[in-house]
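#onboarding

Welcome to the new folks! Below is a worked example of what a typical request in this channel looks like: someone posts a single protein sequence, and someone else replies with the predicted structure as tokens. Don't worry about understanding the tokens yet, we'll cover that in week two.

Example request:
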Amino acid sequence: MARADAACFSFYKTTDSWYGGAHPFAYQVGFSIDSTSGKVLELEDVLTDYDAFYEEVIRALEEQENSDYFFEDWKDTLQAEFYDDPSQQVNWVLTRDGISVWFNQYEIAPYAAGPVYLDFPVQGYGNLIREELFAGEIPEAEDMHAKKAVYAEDLLSEQGSYEDSVGNYYYYSYRLPEITGPDTEDIRKINAEIEELRKDYIDSQLQAVREKLSLDVFEAGYSCVVWNGITSVMVRIYMEGDYTLYRCWNLRQDGTEADNADVTALFGLTPESFVEAAHDAVEPAVDFDPDWFDKSVSEEMQSIREKTLSKDNINASLPVYITQDRGLGFICRVYSIAGADYYENLFEIPDTEHRPDGLTRVNINPQTQDNFSLKDGYYEITNNADGAKYRFDDNTVLVEGIPCYDDGCDAMTWLERYLDHPAYGEFTDDPYSISGFAPGDIMTLLVGKDGHIAVLESIGYWD
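Example response:
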């Protein structure tokens, strides 16, 4: 969230994906909404001189330290986004201080340059930005902050790209929360723990950026969900070596920390039934076919499986949290025969979601094109792992950013295009060549009880 008050509500939406190429891909879009009318604001709505602001954006980009790495036609891209091409858009949000504008990877510069961020504070650009949107006495909106309920705001928000001393390029994004609400000992304790995470994992990385050294931590983020009187905060810190650190906390609205029994009870689970459900949720992650391995490796895999599913590892004290779908999630170690001794993974207890739209989020891997079957006006998509079938049709909503979808085509046209351009094919002049289906594609869906795919949220590549 960038801003929430009586004048404006603005936020970012970030999408990450990787389709098996040389790099993963992340992009960010912004939304700014008039708090009174509910109107989604256009950039023109918050400026007094649109043309002059456009010229200021060009000037600021020309002054960027890495502007030499911009594409030769970057000014043509700006012209299209600001004026010529309605299908393209300027990425921006209103902040508490002014306007933030950014350009995603590959938009005006190659992947190595990372996103490009520009800030235009109202104090310096008051002649271009509507100052009434930044009046000094704007009252806070009547929300959970005003009521002193427990929530989370940014303690730290740093992102950018840079080149280290040996020519490697990095993109980094660090966000950590600060718990807000009543002044209680539990909130102070949790904030102190988060501050320790910052000192242990993030401060050294920001120093490395300043000194142009290599990074060990590339991304940190958090989520905050409030449901049925519990505020659940989850922090994720992504490190090199494919290791992710997870931490979570649950608080009542009076600022006292909720224990696991309080949280699992929201979902009708006792400590004993939670352990049983958690065991069932983790078990597929350590299933293996012994015929795939020689005897010694198979025995080691079996030992790792037993250790992961043991009572020492899966018990009522596992860290639990409320997912964004108002379901019950938990953090559990999965032991490994390669790399680290274990990796922390996130799991969810099935059928605990309480989405207000009644949909269920599922991740499927069709694995082969044979699992996409064209029926009478729709596709039946089969999850290769369990044989579950889902219906995809022109009523399926597509989320911007999925491969082969840059022109707003209908859903059935998109799926045919996606299947006709396999990621392992040959590169051609076709703009969609090698940007479509791959056997490792994980599709994130929002599904109705009848198996209809209401929303295709994202496609990520399993590695």
